[in-house]
Design brief:
It contains 15 helices and 16 strands. By secondary structure, the protein is of the alpha+beta class. It has 2 domains: 238 residues, BirA Bifunctional Protein, domain 2; 89 residues, Anticodon-binding domain (Rossmann fold, 3-Layer(aba) Sandwich). The strands form 3 sheets. Strands 1-5-6-11-10-9-7-8 form an 8-stranded mixed β-sheet. Strands 13-12-14-15-16 form a 5-stranded mixed β-sheet, with helices on both faces. The protein is elongated. It starts with 15 loop residues before the first helix and ends in a 5-residue tail after the last helix.
């Protein structure tokens, strides 16, 4: 029988990789909390309608990538491919409109069935920040600043570039949408199959096409900025002035779009050249029409998500955990006193490793391999004298310490 393996596109987090993951989450939450965000955690699966309605039945995510299944009760459920839709559902089902404005942050696993590649897995992890109930551009500025400060706190500020665009308001987007339909309709025979499907329902998605033939047509397609009304231009100018005032640099990218109709105004990505083709490490946008589309009240929204796996490939290795104190009992009579000492030290804030079996030499060898700083040896003679033998595992120097004062005597090894 073949040995069990992880499912393709999934991976285990252990050791340094787990520490990188944890460091990113801790850093994100620390920065988000300073911005006044509160934690939210939504289920990893929802009724399929939550994602089908929000991401669009014809989108690649829904049509090709979601893990959708029928449960034993006959309900169609989908593992979440992203967090925003679940947070919007929680806002509606939880009756949170009375609590606006809301600033929410979360993290966890997402699921998409796609070809695994560098920085892109079928189970991957994201951090996520959302602001609900603030239609003013101040929210755009604050969320962008949060993203910049988060990346800066990870030491990546100089290795990413902020690309920024505006999608305009509903009127502007509708005018631009029709202009794209008119333009691409003249080239139907040259469009890829996917772009033909998007032409009437989601023409802005054609601008994202990776097909070489499509990209040649996109080069001469109408520009969104030519269809922005005055209100949209004013909104975007305020966002840009805010970023300038905060010293957050950016590059305008008119081809950076979000294809679904509930998106509006600001869209952005922090990108890097360090990861090859998978260059986006954090992306976001304003989605003022999303909650209304889902059946809730008209509510402004804006947010971003960042892939933890991609960030983990870029950051410096986090500091190793504190070196442990190893407790090594000598003889059966010392087993219970060793347990008591270990618990006391742990309660005092020490990292403690215990040897479970083997002679003293084997236990000391395992303690050294585990990276322990000192070993506390206790046997019959030590118990009788109320002391322990403390061996420095780096220098091999030994000292005798009183059992009753170990918490303070080991302070240098906390």
């Amino acid at each position: 029988m073949a040995a069990l393996q992880p499912v393709r596109g999934t991976h285990d987090l252990i050791g340094e990789e787990a520490r990188r993951h944890d460091h990113i989450v801790r850093t994100f939450k620390a920065v988000a909390h300073r911005y006044g965000f509160q934690d939210i955690s939504t289920p990893i699966f929802e009724f399929s309608e939550v994602f089908h309605r929000t991401l669009g039945e014809t989108s690649d995510v829904v049509s090709k990538e979601t893990y959708t299944f029928t449960d034993r009760g006959g309900e169609s459920l989908t593992l979440r491919p992203e967090m925003t839709a679940g947070i919007a559902r929680a806002f509606i089902s939880g009756g949170l409109a009375k609590d606006l404005p809301l600033k929410l942050c979360g993290h966890g696993p997402m699921f998409r069935y796609e070809r695994p590649q560098k920085g892109r897995l079928r189970q991957f992890h994201q951090v996520d920040a959302e602001v609900l109930g603030v239609p003013e551009p101040q929210a755009d500025i604050e969320v962008l600043a949060l993203g910049a400060d988060f990346l800066g706190a990870l030491g990546l500020g100089d290795r990413v570039e902020l690309k920024l665009n505006t999608l305009g308001d509903t009127e502007s987007r509708q005018n631009y949408r029709q202009a794209l339909i008119n333009y691409f309709s003249a080239y139907k025979e040259q469009l890829s199959e996917d772009s033909l499907k998007r032409l009437d329902r989601n023409p802005m998605r054609i601008l994202d096409s990776k097909d070489e033939g499509d990209r040649k047509l996109v080069a001469d397609a109408p520009r969104l900025h030519d269809y922005l009304n005055e209100a949209s231009r004013t909104f975007f100018d305020k966002v840009r002035r805010g970023l300038d005032a905060l010293g957050i640099g950016y590059t305008l990218d008119e081809r950076l779009v979000r294809g679904l109709d509930y998106y509006s105004h600001t869209a952005w990505e922090f990108v890097t050249t360090d990861l090859g083709a998978q260059g986006t490490v954090l992306g976001g946008g304003r989605y003022d029409g999303l909650i209304a589309l889902m059946g809730g009240p008209q509510t402004a929204g804006i947010g971003f998500a960042a892939g933890i796996e991609r960030l983990a490939m870029m950051i410096e290795p986090p500091a190793a955990p504190a070196r442990a104190v190893a407790i090594v009992p000598i003889g059966e009579a010392a087993e219970l006193p060793a347990l008591q000492i270990a618990r006391r030290l742990r309660q005092a804030g020490y990292t403690v490793e215990q040897g479970y079996r083997g002679n003293v030499g084997k236990r000391l060898e395992r303690a050294s391999k585990a990276g322990a700083r000192v070993a506390i040896l206790i046997g019959d003679d030590e118990i009788a004298a109320g002391v322990v033998k403390c061996r420095d595992l780096d220098t091999r120097a030994e000292t005798m310490l009183a059992i009753d004062s170990l918490e303070t005597a080991l302070a240098d090894h906390r």
